[in-house]
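Structure (tokenized):
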């Protein structure tokens, strides 16, 4: 570890985030504290609050990095296919696989809670919106939905895949593991899309 005077504020920020991220990977949110971070980077706990507002700020910044990382395989999955149904299937698989292989980081994004009086930062909402937006175009092509109906369909589909991931990671499903999760997400997407197409209103006829 370099001497404290050799770290700039930006370097300290990176050290803190990397240490916090590794602690979450190893122990989950329950294992994260200012004291634990300080011990990892060789500084006093007070140093963390010279760079971040509080521990919530640290967690939110780690979560932003996680959401950026999650976006990469999902974008790749959508870009690899021209068929809209395949884009949705593989985006769901990519999401579920990320949750399975990075469980504590993924769970931290959705288990962390701010006090009720503190609004969530816009940069987190923006990142979540980017994930949902990835499926909007293919979902519109498959279903013909638009506007509020398309928004509702995207949220419902994303929520369903998210729920499968939570149940799998918490051992609430009899089938566990990557293969079972893929089967469940494939079934959810396939049947949900079939239902959307079946229940779609007929096109206006002039």
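Design, position by position:
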């Amino acid at each position: 570890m370099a001497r404290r005077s050799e770290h700039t504020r930006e370097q300290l920020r990176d050290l803190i985030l990397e240490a916090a991220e590794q602690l979450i990977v190893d122990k989950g949110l329950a294992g994260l504290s200012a004291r634990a971070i300080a011990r990892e980077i060789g500084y006093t706990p007070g140093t963390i609050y010279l760079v971040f507002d509080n521990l919530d700020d640290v967690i939110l910044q780690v979560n932003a990095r996680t959401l950026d990382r999650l976006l990469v395989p999902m974008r790749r999955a959508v870009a690899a296919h021209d068929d809209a149904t395949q884009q949705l299937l593989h985006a769901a698989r990519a999401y579920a696989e990320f949750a399975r292989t990075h469980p504590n980081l993924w769970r931290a994004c959705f288990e962390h809670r701010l006090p009720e009086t503190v609004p969530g930062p816009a940069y987190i909402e923006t990142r979540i919106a980017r994930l949902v937006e990835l499926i909007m175009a293919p979902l519109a092509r498959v279903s013909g939905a638009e506007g509020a109906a398309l928004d509702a369909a995207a949220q419902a589909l994303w929520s369903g895949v998210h729920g499968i991931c939570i149940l799998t990671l918490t051992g609430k499903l009899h089938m566990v593991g990557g293969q079972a999760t893929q089967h469940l997400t494939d079934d959810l997407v396939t049947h949900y899309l079939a239902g959307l197409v079946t229940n779609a209103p007929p096109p206006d006829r002039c």
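Reviewer-requested clarification: Residues 56 and 114 are 7 Å apart (CA to CA). The chain has a mean pLDDT of 89.
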